[in-house]
Backbone:
């Protein structure tokens, strides 16, 4: 036994099987196995996702341990994503973590996936100062989170319907661009004119988002203009559509920063990999005198590194769970 705090973290909430080792608060690795099976269906198929997790998890965990030079006996605890996410996917990581912790007779730590996206900011320098606002934008969520401490967070704004990642993915599907659509739209948008077409911005009260209207507007636009026009103008369409999504995000972010008088601003989640959003945030930060924080790309999309970071704080706080625990697909922050 030694005094090091070495933790194994497992992430399996959606279509990425991932394991990471964290030692005394420092991430040693972040192994991610992405499931490519979903591409041919144009979206994540839950049953195929859980099956792929089942097939990959032992190899991924073994790779994390071997790569870090860590023995199972060195582990102080095992952490897993309890939710939110797909039930079948969460069950694989949860069951695996429970069995491993039971076998090694060490504590078990539950992690909230959305809290972990925010805590990805504590993996590398510079770290945001408290309190800060984090805009978490992923395939399943669009949240404005007021962060007062590592484990003290409040969701102050959310979407009333689709997540912004869905708005990217569904648009890409309508435009015939494949899955996941965010990176495709990002790539084409970089070569297009964002002012070419005007897509409607939703008018939701306070800090609420809505992305279903713009998605419908794009559908009508495609139907009205026809396939040939869409093909010839695909770059401008992507740039204009992405521009509208980014404006909606930044409008609410500005509002939240003002309301809570915060100038430390972070973005997290898969959509924070978007180059247009990163650029727009940098420009806005200059105007508003914000200090902005954007995680390293590998910690934007789903990964166990962020779960490990959250687990470290839970460990320091003595937050452990018992073997009766089960996943919470709709877990809240
Ligand atoms: O956080 P994440 O990996 O998984 C969830 O928890 O949902 O986010 C996945 C989402 C997908 O909707 C994907 O299209 C989007 O992030 N995404 C992007 C980019 N890279 C990933 N959206 C826009 N631009 C990107 N470069
Ligand atoms: Zn996520």
Residues:
């Amino acid at each position: 036994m030694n005094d090091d705090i070495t933790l194994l973290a497992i992430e399996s909430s959606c279509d990425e099987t991932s394991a990471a080792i964290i030692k005394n608060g420092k991430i040693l690795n972040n192994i991610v196995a992405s499931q490519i099976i979903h591409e041919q269906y144009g979206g994540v198929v839950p049953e195929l996702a859980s099956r792929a997790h089942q097939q990959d998890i032992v190899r991924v965990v073994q790779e994390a341990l071997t790569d870090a030079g860590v023995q199972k006996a060195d582990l102080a605890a095992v952490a897993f994503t309890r939710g939110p996410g797909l039930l079948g996917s969460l069950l694989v990581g949860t069951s695996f973590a429970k069995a491993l912790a039971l076998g090694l007779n060490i504590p078990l730590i539950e992690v909230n996936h959305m809290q972990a996206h925010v805590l990805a900011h504590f993996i590398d320098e510079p770290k945001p100062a408290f309190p800060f606002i984090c805009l978490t934008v992923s395939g399943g969520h669009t949240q404005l989170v007021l962060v007062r401490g590592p484990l003290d967070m409040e969701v102050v704004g959310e979407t009333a319907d689709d997540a912004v990642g869905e708005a990217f993915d569904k648009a890409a599907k309508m435009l015939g661009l494949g899955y996941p659509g965010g990176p495709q739209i990002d790539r084409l948008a970089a070569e297009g004119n964002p002012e070419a077409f005007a897509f409607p911005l939703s008018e939701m009260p306070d800090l609420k988002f809505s992305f279903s209207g713009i998605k419908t507007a794009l559908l009508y636009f495609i139907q009205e203009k026809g396939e040939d026009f869409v093909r010839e103008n695909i770059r401008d369409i992507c740039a204009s559509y992405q521009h509208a999504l980014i404006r909606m995000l930044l409008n609410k972010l500005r509002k939240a920063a003002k309301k809570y008088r915060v100038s430390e601003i972070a973005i997290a989640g898969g959509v924070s990999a978007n180059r247009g959003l990163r650029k727009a945030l940098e420009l806005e930060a200059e105007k508003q005198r914000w200090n902005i924080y954007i995680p390293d790309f590998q910690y934007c999309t789903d990964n166990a590194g962020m779960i490990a970071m959250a687990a470290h704080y839970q460990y320091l706080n003595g937050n452990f769970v018992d073997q009766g625990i089960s996943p919470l697909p709709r877990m809240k922050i």
Summary: The chain is about 45% helix and 20% strand. Strands lie at 6-11, 16-23, 26-34, 77-83, 108-112, 132-137, 142-149, 152-158, 264-268, 291-293.
